[in-house]
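User: For this week's homework, look closely at the record that follows, marking any run of repeated tokens, and judge whether sequence predicts the tokens.
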Amino acid sequence: MKKVLTMSLAALMLGALAMPAFAQDKKEEARSVLLKDTYKAMERRTEKTEDSNETNVKPKDQEMVLQNEKKTSNETKVIDILEVNADGKPTSIRIRWTEGTETTETTNMGQPPSDPVEEDSEMKGVSILFTWNADKKAYVGKLEEGDAELSGVKKELSKKDPLFNAFIPNREVKVGESWEPKEEDIKAMMGEDENVKLTKVSATCKAEEIVKEEGAELLRVSLEISMTGELQNEDLGKPTIEATRSGSFYWNIKEARVVRIEMENKAEFEAEVTHPQAGKMTLTVTVEGEEKMTETVGKVEEEDKDDGDDDEMK
């Protein structure tokens, strides 16, 4: 009887191992997504950015706020892909900043808030034509409209590739996978800044999940950026500034492009100043804010034609 029982248990165990796969727990393999941007000739990409920042100036190690500044901005950037070569490389790109406003409200200690001041953003009305130079393996920028002395214009013209995104690896990534862009690639993407000289930059990206929005599949990629730089201000002694940016960008899997970016920003630096009454004092300056960018795609020819029809109707 004991022998029969033993054989029966062995048979049951073998039977369980031989059961169909659907009756066992099976871990689903992580899905892969190709993160590589594609462009088409006469394609128009419109980026709308909303940005808000709050800056506080305090004496070091104190809670007393000497100055508070709140700034909000809205900007529209239009990217026209005019020509694309046989390899899919854009060879002629026009970038225009068609809209842009900044609103600033400042409060100094012991005084009521100032009236909000609204003005056009620095880049509003700027137009730059970028042409690919195969020999130099870089784009050559030509300023069509705008002031060449503006820091924002200089920053854009310093970029070797105005479309380059250091956080897009140009390969397939699996959901759950992380990667770290090269420091030199991040600096190249940001361009040269007259106000801050970057000394160290690092970032980590992670393909977090696939979500559905309005029938489209989007890959959400988390993004953490750390930056150290030197503030190019002689009066403040060129202090070291530490900054972080954290958030996510959303990649449309079918259309192969970024459709939305949501980020939170933080920065801090200390500077020694001389106050007329208090004498020398060390101030701590902190900046916190958030940014949201959305991108839509259309066709240059169709939009231009529509504009012409509207003019004729008028």
Observations:
- The longest helix spans residues 2-17.
